[in-house]
Design a protein that fits this description.
The protein is α/β, with parallel strands linked by helices and 219 residues long. The chain is 51% helix and 13% strand. Helix 3 packs parallel to helix 4. The longest helix has 15 residues. The relative contact order is 0.11.
């Protein structure tokens, strides 16, 4: 049986070397591509066509979540596993909503990480034991609830407000949002005020908390 092909995206060389050594004990798993950032990751995945992309969510520059969105936009059938030091509500919910099939933690044992890789390779969801229970239940509810997501307050936002909401919860400043959307900073602030009013929020921090609790940090 041919080995399962993996791409590993992590900015720490020592960690990548350690994972490569660990996987040497699993002959059915083979790392065919490595990268440390988005500029390397996207072409590396395109060229190697791995069956599973193992991706750190905390990367310099373009985040692992953004990389996953781009990879899945190109090929929705790609299977992506987050492997991170963090397991907070916002990152887990964002990863799942972006389309990642699994979320594992670097604090887990080698056997658990291998299990996570194999689970995602089968097209099944894997969530580390450290992942918050309400994030998991909320995500499953939204996935299985049909139109339940449309009843959430975020459904009241216009398409442009939704775009700005997504950039706000990523911590992007007004000037950068304006540049990215090719609108004026004043227009961004106007939209932000409407978003806060519609969602009954008082700050960007409130928006992040809401998005995490809804389990639908947007992609």
């Amino acid at each position: 049986m041919s080995a399962l092909k993996l791409a590993l995206v992590d900015d720490h060389l020592l960690f990548r070397e350690g994972l490569r050594a660990m996987l040497a004990n699993s002959p059915d798993l083979q790392i065919v591509a490595e990268a440390s950032n988005a500029q390397e990751a996207i072409p590396a995945v395109r060229n190697s066509n791995p069956e599973v992309v193992v991706l750190d969510v905390m990367l310099p520059g373009m985040s692992g979540i953004a990389i996953a969105r781009e990879l899945l936009r190109e090929n929705p059938k790609r299977r992506v596993l987050a492997l991170s030091m963090v397991a907070d509500e916002a990152h887990v919910a964002d990863a799942l909503q972006a389309g990642m099939l699994g979320y594992a933690c670097k604090a887990q044992s080698a056997a658990e990480v291998v299990e996570a890789i194999r689970t995602v390779a089968r097209g099944e969801t894997y969530l580390a034991p450290q992942v918050s229970g309400f994030v998991v239940s909320d995500y499953r509810r939204l996935r299985g609830g049909g139109d339940s997501a449309t009843r959430l307050p975020i459904a009241s936002l216009t398409a442009r407000e939704r775009e700005i909401f997504e950039l706000c919860i990523q911590g992007m400043p007004t000037a950068e949002i304006a540049r990215q959307l090719s609108i004026s900073p004043r227009t961004v602030e106007t939209h932000r005020s409407r978003i806060l009013r519609k969602l009954n929020a008082h700050s960007a921090v409130d928006l992040v908390r809401m998005a995490a609790r809804w389990g639908m940090l947007s992609h």
